[in-house]
Design goal:
elongated
Length: 64
């Protein structure tokens, strides 16, 4: 497989960040969340949007 310089750079940075926090995933997540909170960048959410189903209008009369 041909070496991918971008992938190698990402892996190197990931390794450096992990080592910075002694490979403790909780510390890595806390730092990431802290940096996201301070960032002005849009954060992507993978939560599904809440869908509101159409509610019948109570003021309308139904046919008899």
């Amino acid at each position: 497989m041909t070496p991918d310089p971008i992938l190698e750079e990402v892996r190197t940075i990931r390794e450096q960040l992990a080592a910075q926090f002694q490979f403790d995933i909780r510390k890595i997540i806390e730092d990431t969340q802290r940096r996201q909170a301070l960032s002005n960048n849009k954060i992507v959410s993978f939560e599904r949007p809440k869908i509101t189903l159409h509610q019948p209008d109570e003021n309308k009369t139904s046919p008899s």
